[in-house]
């Protein structure tokens, strides 16, 4: 079912396809033939993939490979703008084989089979939190006709995917369970809790509240988060607050006391002590630099 359809499609049979869409009504089954990326610039798209529901809002995207099946629903008064990118696995494999970064170890070759098997974790992500998401977001600032969909475009997409999934692949191996479907489920739960922290870290969060968002018990979430991210949820929150505070101070628009409050610290003394411990400099000294 279509309504007010606006589609722009670019296809390269040897590499993949890119479809820009602007729709108010759309409902269809979706066989995933290749590695698929579904990104929303404006509005809401609802997907059901392998029995799970994913509601994609502005600047969120879904990843799934050829082992996924499901459907898409768009029902909106205003046009929903999105981009769908399909990449043939051979292109992703080629990128994996040659991908190197000077600041990390070599890519684990097991990633090749990971991307191409039912072990891959179909999941949705916030664009601001990933290399791929930031790249996709940047496309929205360009005129579609200005984008050249050559091999370079697809290889760049693959590189961003690999950067994001090196840690994810390793984190999955850490989760202590035999069944891979259980690993994927638990990873999604913990990742959802992490994204909740990313959006609310300046607030007075409790493990109970975060675990509830992750659909896990408090201790189960705490243990899994610590195993996966090598720090406790509170340590992660503390780190996020200090980084946020540093960036706010460097902007030159806030006083130390203001930053302490907006970053979620109980008082300026606690903030200054934690900031100096992390960055080896006091907040007031940083402002003067």
Proportion of residues in β-strands: 15-25%
Distance between the termini: 59 Å
- Please give the CATH architecture of the largest domain: Sandwich
CATH fold name of the largest domain: Jelly Rolls
Biggest sheet descriptor: 9 strands, antiparallel
- Strand runs, count: 9
Radius of gyration from the CA trace?
A: 21 Å
Order of helices and strands: EEEEEEEEHHEHHHHHHHHH
List its salient traits:
9-stranded antiparallel β-sheet, 11 helices, 3 domains, alpha+beta, Jelly Rolls, 9 strands, 289 residues, single chain, Arc Repressor Mutant, subunit A
Task: Sum this structure up briefly.
This protein is α+β, with helices and mostly antiparallel strands and 289 residues long.
């Amino acid at each position: 079912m279509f309504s007010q359809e606006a589609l722009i499609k670019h296809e390269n049979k040897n590499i993949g396809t890119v479809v820009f869409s602007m729709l108010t009504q759309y409902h269809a089954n979706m066989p995933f033939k290749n590695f698929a990326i579904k990104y929303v610039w404006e509005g809401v798209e609802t997907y059901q993939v392998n029995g799970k529901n994913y509601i994609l809002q502005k600047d969120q995207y879904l990843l799934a490979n050829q082992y996924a099946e499901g459907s898409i629903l768009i029902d909106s008064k205003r046009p929903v703008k999105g981009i769908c990118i399909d990449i043939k696995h051979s292109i992703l494999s080629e990128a994996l084989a040659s991908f190197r970064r000077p600041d990390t170890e070599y890519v684990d070759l097991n990633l090749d089979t990971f991307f191409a098997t039912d072990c891959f974790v179909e999941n949705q992500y916030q664009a601001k939190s990933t290399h791929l998401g930031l790249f996709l977001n940047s496309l929205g600032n360009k005129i579609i006709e200005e984008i050249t969909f050559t091999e370079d475009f697809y290889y760049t997409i693959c590189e961003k995917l690999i950067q994001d999934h090196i840690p994810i692949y390793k984190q999955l191996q850490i989760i202590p369970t035999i069944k891979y479907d259980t690993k994927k489920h638990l990873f999604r739960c913990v990742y959802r809790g992490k994204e909740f922290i990313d959006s609310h870290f300046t607030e007075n969060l409790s493990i109970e509240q975060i675990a509830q968002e992750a659909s896990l018990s408090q201790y189960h979430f705490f243990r899994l988060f610590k195993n996966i991210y090598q720090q406790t949820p509170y340590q992660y929150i503390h780190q996020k607050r200090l980084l946020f505070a540093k960036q706010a101070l460097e902007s030159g628009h806030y006083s130390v006391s203001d930053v302490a409050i907006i970053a979620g610290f109980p008082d300026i003394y606690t903030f200054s002590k934690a900031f100096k411990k992390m960055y080896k400099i006091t907040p007031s000294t940083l402002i003067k630099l």
